[in-house]
Write a structure and sequence with these properties.
Largest sheet: 6 strands, mixed
Radius of gyration: 34 Å
CATH superfamily of the largest domain: P-loop containing nucleotide triphosphate hydrolases
Oligomer: single chain
Number of strands: 31
Number of helices: 20
Helix content: 25-40%
Distance between the termini: 89 Å
CATH class of the largest domain: Alpha Beta
CATH topology of the largest domain: Rossmann fold
Length: 688
């Protein structure tokens, strides 16, 4: 159990710790010379029950309250001291407020210097303390009187602390590892050492960790837990870690950094929080109010962005957004304290509820519902509530990371809630079973209605479909939900379009007959430089208008793409050309290539090669820089799955990349209308 002292300057905190443990808390020359605690002091008390009590002695001077907050953030048990001959003082009030704001619910109030006053004075001080703690986390705490000089009451107090430690028991260590750094120093022959309280999880010698927010990588060379050499440290332990790494030095580590599991490294500078303003504040908190934010051992400048229409009055509790001057490493539901920018008074505090809030649309009903869900401390209850709030989907990985949950805890949540997940292990999206059933049914109904109204179209655009469905998932969630829906085989994903698997775009009987005569002209060896509309019209003896109209219908069906004006390519050919561009890009330096590179592979002339690349440019498939181009990997599925196992060219070369490499991230197959893009075309004369 970690015990933290609190109380006004010169109220006997350090003397009390020494009387209990025999260890001098003040360790700095300045502290001994001035007789006050400036920095955190530490002492340990082994017990006969096999427990070790760790004491954090904090400064009582108002100038060092920020250090007191750093020490109080990792404690299990508060020991508030009040001198019998001095009574309640300003830092007594402030330290009690900090204990209350940090949610430290276990503690005891110790009246020190019992030997310097009378029984009547002790009774009055005890009564004042009881009145002071009403409404705080220490309202039911016992009040005891001791003398560190005579030893009166010390043994009884020590026994109370041991009993409290036994009742608290072991901290659960199933979360991922986090340790808040309050000191960093170098020891001769050992190297860099950091100390702090383990906030969650477990660490072992040899483990790799990250320093956050800097992101430096380190390895744990050795561990001291509760002031003893150990092979591991766990949640609730006071630990010293000997860290080693290429960039690890004393100067690279700062008080307020967090040593953590590498999976948790995701610093943030914008946090939604529940904030309580102390009743003794004289003025309401207005929009963009500047503050000093204290979290763990970190102290950072920040501003308060109000999520309501009015300033926050003294004594009120409400949701706010904290916008930080610099990013910090945090977790939900960590506690925090805010003080004024001068560092003279504590204003309030609360807990973090969302580490990735939006900067805009912060007051919408949807965000209010999300914040209400995230306010719940219990991870399973919070996850369940989020599934019931818009957008009715949760990124499992982000949720687990921001709450420092272990894989075991995540699996327990999944099992208990019977959720449906889709996506990758790195970015799995979860919805409730009810939400998924509604989504899947409405998706099929929407597609069926669209096909009935538009029988000649390939399918419906993804974004248009997303906006038609309820619940309305976010774009990323919708994308992976479609992948999940396609696994049933009832839904087909054709690049940017979605259709029922049973749907095929249909033409009228006359148009179908005409298309049967046009399609072969676009395939075969000339597929990379097919004839234009006017040439085709001449060959099949139709008007240009009719041929152009039919191509527009074929384009809507997803059979062809208009590369340039009146110049149409079969969709399969477009996929093959894209596969060739991918192969060229992979073989080129830094992935860049020219129009000449594509021309040489396709043997279709510079003009047509440029038209093809400009077409890809317009659709964001290629990115142009001067005369050079590179591929946009996020748009390679725009024209559906690449269906050719190799990119054949008239020059005899082929792409070494197999079909699986080109498969669309949607796992779909294109609709080509039943025509083979390699069908040999009849001899055709072209007008130039």
């Amino acid at each position: 159990m970690i015990i933290g002292t609190a109380g006004h300057i010169d109220h006997g905190k350090t003397a009390l710790v020494k009387a209990l443990t025999g260890v001098e808390g003040d360790r700095l020359k300045e502290e001994k010379a001035r007789g006050i605690t400036i920095d955190l002091g530490f002492a340990y008390l082994p017990t006969s029950q096999g427990l070790t009590l760790g004491f954090i002695d904090v400064p009582g001077h108002e100038r060092f309250v920020h250090t007191m907050v750093a020490g109080a953030s990792g404690i299990d048990f508060a020991m508030l001291t009040v001198a019998a001959d001095d009574g309640i003082k300003p830092q007594t009030l402030e330290h009690l407020s900090i204990i209350d704001l940090l949610g430290i619910a276990r503690g005891i109030v110790v009246i020190t210097k019992k030997d310097l006053t009378t029984a009547d004075c002790l009774s009055k001080v005890a009564a004042d303390i009881k009145a002071l703690t009403v409404g705080t986390t220490l309202e039911t705490a016992d009040v005891v009187a001791v003398s560190a000089i005579t030893g009166d009451g010390i043994d009884a107090l020590r026994e109370r602390l041991v009993d409290a430690a036994a009742k608290i028991g072991q901290h659960p260590a199933d979360g991922r590892f986090r340790l808040a750094v309050d000191r960093a120093f170098t020891l001769q022959g050992i190297g860099v050492v950091v100390t702090g309280t383990v906030l969650s999880g477990r660490i072992e010698v040899g483990n790799h960790v990250r320093l956050s927010p800097s992101g430096l990588i380190a390895r744990v060379r050795s561990i001291h837990a509760q002031n003893q050499p150990a092979e591991f440290g766990k949640a609730g332990d006071r630990c010293a870690l000997n860290l080693t790494g290429p960039e690890i030095s004393k100067d690279a580590i700062h008080r307020g950094d967090v040593v953590l599991d590498p999976e948790l490294h995701a610093p943030t500078d914008r946090i939604d929080a529940v904030l309580r303003i102390l009743q003794r504040e004289e003025k309401p908190i207005s929009q963009w109010f500047p503050i000093r934010l204290h979290h763990g051992a970190a102290e950072i400048g920040a501003h308060i962005a109000l999520l309501g229409d009015k300033p926050i009055p003294p004594g009120a509790t409400t949701d706010v957004q904290l916008v930080l001057d610099e990013p910090i490493a945090a977790a939900v539901p960590d506690r925090f304290v805010i003080r004024d920018v001068s560092g003279r008074r504590t204003i309030g505090g609360g807990k973090f509820i969302d580490l990735r809030p939006p900067a805009r649309k912060r007051r919408t009903p949807e965000r209010q519902a999300q914040r209400a869900a995230m306010t719940l401390d219990d991870a399973t209850k919070a996850f369940s509530a989020l599934l019931a709030a818009p957008p009715f989907a949760v990124d499992v990985s982000s949720f687990a990371r921001d709450r420092a949950l272990s894989e075991k805890s995540v699996e327990q949540i999944k099992d208990e809630l019977a959720i449906v997940t889709f996506g990758t292990d790195e970015s799995a999206i979860a919805v409730s079973l009810k939400t998924w059933q509604t989504f899947a049914t409405d998706l099929k109904n929407a597609l069926g209605a669209f096909h009935a109204d538009n029988p000649d179209r390939q399918g419906i655009g993804r974004e248009q479909l997303r906006l038609m469905l309820q619940p309305r998932l976010s774009k990323p969630s919708f994308a992976v939900a479609l992948q999940k829906a396609a696994e049933s085989g009832d839904i087909a994903l054709d690049g940017a379009f979605v259709r029922l698997s049973s749907h095929q775009a249909r033409l009228s009987t006359a148009d179908e007959a005409t298309w049967q005569s046009i399609a072969p002209l676009l395939g075969g060896d000339e597929r990379f430089r097919p004839p234009r509309v006017r040439d085709i019209a001449e060959v099949i003896d139709h008007s240009e208008h009719d041929v152009r109209r039919l191509f527009k219908l074929a384009g809507r069906a997803g059979w062809v793409d208009e590369i340039a004006h009146d110049h149409f390519f079969l969709r399969g050919t477009v996929q093959e050309m894209l596969a060739t561009a991918i192969d060229i890009s992979r073989k080129s330096e830094a992935g860049f290539f020219t129009a000449a590179d594509l021309r040489d592979r396709l043997s279709n002339g510079r003009k047509v090669a440029i038209q093809i690349l400009e077409f890809f440019d317009r659709h964001g498939v290629t990115l142009r820089k001067g005369d050079m181009r590179t591929l946009n990997k996020h748009r390679l599925d725009l024209f559906g799955a690449l269906v050719h196992s190799s990119a054949q060219t008239s020059g005899g070369e082929s792409s070494p990349v197999g079909r699986s490499d080109f498969k669309s991230e949607w796992g779909s197959e294109p609709a080509l209308g039943g025509f083979d893009s390699h069908s040999p075309p009849p001899v055709i004369s072209r007008k130039r």
